[in-house]
């Protein structure tokens, strides 16, 4: 016993450190083998590269802009950069810039999936320091005369600081030009154009409308009070009037689809984000009555144009019979079958069709399924995806559904319907949302170069 004790006491700390590193390397190599095994047989060009990030990001040469110098609050603290390890995916023989974007996006998106208990116990200052680095990167991108949208998309995918969100969203949607010198002129012209549209189509008596237009306006007026009913702010009369003007103007200018129920939900993230430029504190404490007529008009115009830009990329989601949504629901069903065959088989045995629950997910982009305070974070990723958003929604919704994989396999048809209509997300935090996005990005990285997995 004494010999053993003396031997253990005499172990060199350097040897102990080497042994610890060997153990980490062993676990790391096993992870690599698992991923390679998972991808075996899939036609994905390129390679999977797993690395440990040891060097801090290089922000040398950065000079802050006074436009974004604010003290960081807890609301600014992201949940993205809490890891010392990251997983990088290099997929395909694409350009080096695309590879960098893919690697950095996955590095950010997977950070919450593999948080260790030690990471969770990090002091608050560490989290704020990490967040400060992200804010500096955003500030650097937004401070140039010509903004590089691809770099901004890469940053925004993992979340945007709340006070930068209005500017970032306008840029990502192409509403504001990347040339900062043209920004004010373009926004002024677009806002005046929205005012003209409201004056021409909304601020007129019903006698000057067609029967279809009257019915459409009535339906909008019915739906506005139903919009995000659990957030008191949206129950204010003036807020509902703003929603009504935005939706009616959009429907009149887009006759191929007109107004479709669910589009009212899609305005709400824009409304909250652009109002945040004028109102502070909790959304529930806001009052639109505190704003001037010009400010309200500017917010409405920004919402109108950003909604238009968003829906331009998914027009067939809201045309007759909504074929775009039906197509994506089919893809979702096939993807779930490939990823989690037991869940897919159980739902099929119970006679549950994906259209019965997933149609609303695609129609309202999950706004009705998660707490509203998480919606803007989710939409950071939506808007960062750009034109690729419709296809990426399939992966997000598959990840969302399979959050409850084990639970779903224990429910019969009636229980499945009730569960999927009232999902237990009330207490969700950013951590659960980041987990959903991490899985979605991982699956997308695995499958995007082999689309046959979505073929029946």
Shape: globular
Mean pLDDT: 80
Strand order of the largest sheet: 1-2
Uncertain residue segments? 1-11, 30-103, 105-130
| Beta-strand percentage range | under 5%
Please report the distance between the alpha carbons of the first and last residues: 66 Å
The main pleated sheet reads as:
2 strands, antiparallel
What is the succession of H and E elements? HHEEHHHHHHHHHHHHHHHHHH
The total of helices stands at 20
Q: Outline of this structure?
A:
By secondary structure, this protein is mainly alpha-helical. It has helices at 2-9, 13-39, 96-109, 117-120, 124-142, 149-156, 165-172, 183-202, 211-223, 237-253, 263-275, 293-312, 323-339, 341-349, 355-364, 375-385, 389-401, 405-408, 413-421, 430-447, and strands at residues 46-52, 85-91.
């Amino acid at each position: 016993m004494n010999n053993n004790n003396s031997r253990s006491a005499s172990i060199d700390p350097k040897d102990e450190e080497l042994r610890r590193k060997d153990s980490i390397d062993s676990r790391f190599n096993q992870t690599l083998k698992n991923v390679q095994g998972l991808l075996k047989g899939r036609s994905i060009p390129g390679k999977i590269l797993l690395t440990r990030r040891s060097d801090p990001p290089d922000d040398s040469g950065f000079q802050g802009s006074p436009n974004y110098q604010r003290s960081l609050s807890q609301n600014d603290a992201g949940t993205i950069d809490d890891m010392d390890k990251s997983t990088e995916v290099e997929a395909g023989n694409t350009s080096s810039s695309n590879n960098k974007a893919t690697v950095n996006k996955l590095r950010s998106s997977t950070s919450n999936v593999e948080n260790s208990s030690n990471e969770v116990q990090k002091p608050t200052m560490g989290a704020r320091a990490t967040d400060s680095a992200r804010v500096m990167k955003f500030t650097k991108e937004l401070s140039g005369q010509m903004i590089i949208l691809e770099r901004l998309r890469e940053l925004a995918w993992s979340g945007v600081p709340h006070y930068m969100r209005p500017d970032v969203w306008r840029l990502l949607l192409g509403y504001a030009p990347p040339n900062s010198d043209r920004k004010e002129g373009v926004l002024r012209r677009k806002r005046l154009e929205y005012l003209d549209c409201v004056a021409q189509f909304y601020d007129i008596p019903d006698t000057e409308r067609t029967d279809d237009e009257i019915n459409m306006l009535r339906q909008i007026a019915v739906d506005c009070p139903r919009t995000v009913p659990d957030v008191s702010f949206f129950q204010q009369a003036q807020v509902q009037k703003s929603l009504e003007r935005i939706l009616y103007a959009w429907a009149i200018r887009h006759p191929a689809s007109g107004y479709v129920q669910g589009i009212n939900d899609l305005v709400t993230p824009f409304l909250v984000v652009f109002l945040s430029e004028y109102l502070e504190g909790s959304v529930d404490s806001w009052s639109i009555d505190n704003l001037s007529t010009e400010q309200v008009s500017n917010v409405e115009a920004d919402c109108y144009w950003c909604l238009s830009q968003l829906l331009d990329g998914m027009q067939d989601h809201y045309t007759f019979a909504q074929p775009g949504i039906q197509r994506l629901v089919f893809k979702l069903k096939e993807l779930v079958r490939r990823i989690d065959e037991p869940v897919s088989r159980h739902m099929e045995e119970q006679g549950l069709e994906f259209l019965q629950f997933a149609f609303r997910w695609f129609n309202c982009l999950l706004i009705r399924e998660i707490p509203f305070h998480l919606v803007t974070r989710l939409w950071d990723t939506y808007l960062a995806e750009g034109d690729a958003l419709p296809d990426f929604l399939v992966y997000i919704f598959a990840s969302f559904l399979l959050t409850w994989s084990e639970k779903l396999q224990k429910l019969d048809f009636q229980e499945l319907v009730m569960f999927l209509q009232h999902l237990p997300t009330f207490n969700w935090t950013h951590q659960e949302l980041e987990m959903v996005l991490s899985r979605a990005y991982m699956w997308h990285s695995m499958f995007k170069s082999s689309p046959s997995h979505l073929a029946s």
